[in-house]
């Protein structure tokens, strides 16, 4: 059972960097009131570190600025418990600003806020929810640096080595773990909804409740990833949101569901038919038009591209359809009032703020320019791959699409595009410079 002690001895304050990693400081409890009031300082360059936490010297944020500080201000009204911590502790999510308190347009949360503000200028508000997939692993995975399926300790001690999609038995065997996940979500005000056993051994998906605050939806996703890791450790397991931990098993995705309401609270994607409104189709067209440009956000790491395989419920080209899980953009079956779009491209390893910014920004671009989508796809989209241009399937190719995108420069910001691509290129130089075990086995 998780402990919720109302008298923490410490608390964490953190921001989310480009890769979705949490960067911040740990303070004694006595400093909480001051931090809530005045924030904390971190170098602005921290938001643009590479995946291992190294400075990215080509982004212009380090020596050129004297590695100057930004001001991290809390985005939560109060700290929330960290119930899996060994000692009583709380945490506060923050967003980095310039030293004078004005917006820093490199912070992923601020980038999403800028997109939401563009909707507001048109009298529109996105309503958003995420679906996050993850694997539970044996704790030994952290030592071996290889994924090992976990042992279900209250399920006859068996190891989760077989796929058992939508299995209630799998969840029964982990009932105590998921009970603690729900309790931790309640304590941190994360609106976790449905729990599903997914296609991989030890793979699960937890869906979030829709909210008309896109920033809050991304907050929920970001904090949820930390929560799963913490609760899993409390239960003697590990977890991963890595896009493709097993080469021959299902990858971890982050699907985004969204609709858009007007100032009267009406869903503008609903026109009283199953087909949806003209604005829905314009949004779909924008998503398809800018999908290749945004792949570096949806698939930000070398491993991310292993998800994109035909027949793996992961899209390989920009297509759409109604009630069709083989396409990139799906219009789920629903009541007319709940007419919405599901974006199925992003991996669970991506930054939720940047994913939502890219998805909502592309949809808005389609609406603003009254774009028209192609004909919706019926049946198995994987049989049509030769008729469509493939999405970038290599990390370095996706980086070039990203850098050249006028849409991303306009909607997410030129400074962000430059800094994010610099981080990705630094990561690529490091990884592409390594010689893999399979190369030695094959060629030495």
From TrEMBL:
At the top level, the lineage of the source is Bacteria
A biological process from GO = glutamine biosynthetic process
Key words, A-Z: Ligase
Which terms in the Gene Ontology molecular function aspect does this entry carry?
glutamate-putrescine ligase activity; glutamine synthetase activity
Family from the record? Belongs to the glutamine synthetase family.
Q: What is this protein called?
A: Gamma-glutamylputrescine synthetase PuuA
- The record lists the organism as Marinomonas spartinae
Q: Which InterPro entries match?
A: Gln_synt_N_sf (IPR036651), Gln_synth/guanido_kin_cat_dom (IPR014746), Gln_synth_cat_dom (IPR008146)
Q: What is its EC number?
A: 6.3.1.11
Q: Where is the GS catalytic domain?
A: 108-444
Family matches, as SUPFAM superfamilies:
Glutamine synthetase, N-terminal domain, Glutamine synthetase/guanido kinase
């Amino acid at each position: 059972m998780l402990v919720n002690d109302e008298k923490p001895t410490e608390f964490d304050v953190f921001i989310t960097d480009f890769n979705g990693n949490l960067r911040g400081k740990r303070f004694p409890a006595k400093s909480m009131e001051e931090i809530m009031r005045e924030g904390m300082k971190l170098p602005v360059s921290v938001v643009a570190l590479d995946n291992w936490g190294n400075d990215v010297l080509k982004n212009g944020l380090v020596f050129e600025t004297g590695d100057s500080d930004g001001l991290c201000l809390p985005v939560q009204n109060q700290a929330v418990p960290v119930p899996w911590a060994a000692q009583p502790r709380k945490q506060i999510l923050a967003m980095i600003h310039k030293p004078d308190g004005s917006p820093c347009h490199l912070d992923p949360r601020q980038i999403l806020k800028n997109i939401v503000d563009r909707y507001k200028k048109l009298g529109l508000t996105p309503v958003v929810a995420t679906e996050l997939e993850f694997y539970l692993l044996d704790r030994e995975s952290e030592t071996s640096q290889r994924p090992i399926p976990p042992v279900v300790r209250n399920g006859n001690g068996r190891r989760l080595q077989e796929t058992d999609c939508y299995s209630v038995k799998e969840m029964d065997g982990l009932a105590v773990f998921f009970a603690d996940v729900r309790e931790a979500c309640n304590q941190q005000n994360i609106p976790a909804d449905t729990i599903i056993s997914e296609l991989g051994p030890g793979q699960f998906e937890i869906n979030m409740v829709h909210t008309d605050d896109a920033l809050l939806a991304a907050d929920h996703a970001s904090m949820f990833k930390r929560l799963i890791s913490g609760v899993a450790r409390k239960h003697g397991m590990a977890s991963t949101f890595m896009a493709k931990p097993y080469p021959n098993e299902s990858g971890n995705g982050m699907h985004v569901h969204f609709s858009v309401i007007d100032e009267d609270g009406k869903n503008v994607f609903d026109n009283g038919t199953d087909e949806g409104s003209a604005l829905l189709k314009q949004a779909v067209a924008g998503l398809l038009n800018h999908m290749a440009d945004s792949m570096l956000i949806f698939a930000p790491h070398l491993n991310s591209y292993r998800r994109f395989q035909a027949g793996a419920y992961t899209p390989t080209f920009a297509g759409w359809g109604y009630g069709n899980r083989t396409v990139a953009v799906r219009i789920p079956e629903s009541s007319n009032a709940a007419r919405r779009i599901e974006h199925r491209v992003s991996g669970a390893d991506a930054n939720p703020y940047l994913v939502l910014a890219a998805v909502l920004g592309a949809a808005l671009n389609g609406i603003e320019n009254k774009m028209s989508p192609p004909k919706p796809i019926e049946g198995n989209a994987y049989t049509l791959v030769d008729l469509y241009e493939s999405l970038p399937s290599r990390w370095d190719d996706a980086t070039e699409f990203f850098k050249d995108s006028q849409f991303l420069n306009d909607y997410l910001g030129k400074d962000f595009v430059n800094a994010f691509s610099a981080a990705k290129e630094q990561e690529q130089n490091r990884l592409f410079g390594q010689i893999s075990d399979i190369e030695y086995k094959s060629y030495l």
